Structure formats: C-alpha cells, structure tokens
Amino acid sequence: MVQNVGWLDKVAWKSNIASFLAGMLVLMFGFGFMNRGAHETLARERTESAPRPYVASSCAAQFRQLPDYEVRKAALSAKAGDAYSTRQAIPEQRWAGD
User: How far, in Å, CA of 53 to CA of 97, rounded?
Assistant: First the structure.
C-alpha cells in the first residue's frame, strides 16, 4: 500500500512553528501584551479618571455652599444642553482638584 504523504507531513519542525504561533497568540491576547504607545494611553486614561468621583463630590459640596446656590442650580437645569451657558452658571473660582 502506498500512502500519499503531503509536503507538510515531511516537515519535522512544523510543531515548533505551531508552538511559536500559539505562544504569540497567548502573549498578545491572554496576557494583554501591547505596544508602548497603547500602554501609555491606557495608563494616562486610568490615571486621569481615578480621582474624578472623589473630586466631583467635593466640588458639588462646595457648589452647594455658595450663597446663590438656588439661582445657579436653576440656571444649570435650564441650560442643560448648552455647554457655554452651563459654564457661565458655574462661578469662576478654584474648586477642589485645581
């Protein structure tokens, strides 16, 4: 009996190639391997977003202590879609986190 042997079956090192490719896939997707630029971008985003909940609560507390809080609150709710007008309703002073 004659068996038809393909060219890939004759290559002894095919398991090494398959192991290398599988290892690269595990590094890239399994362990989150990424290039330097992607890593720095991700680190910057996480660093900037981490203190936001704490600073926001402090800023809201300071905003509530303003003497004309009710007037400014009404102005903010009336101009909810307009970013420029909303910014005008917030006083020009240093808030927590500045």
Answer: 11
Token representation of residue 76: 């903010």
Q: Could you report the per-residue pLDDT of 36-81, keeping only the tens digit for each? A: 888 888 888 888 888 878 888 888 888 888 888 888 888 777 777 7
- Whether the predicted model's global pTM rises above the 0.90 cut: no
**Alpha-carbon Rg of the chain, whole angstroms?**
30
Return the number of other C-beta atoms located less than 10 Å from residue 94's C-beta.
Answer: 7
Q: Distance (Å, rounded) from C-alpha 53 to C-alpha 58?
A: 9
Q: Nearest CA to 60 among 48, 76, 49?
A: 76
Mean pLDDT score of the chain, rounded to an integer? 76
Cα 9 to chain centroid distance, Å, stands at 46
The neighbour count for residue 79, using CB atoms within 10 Å, is 15
Question: Looking up tokens 């971008």, which residue turns up?
Answer: 41
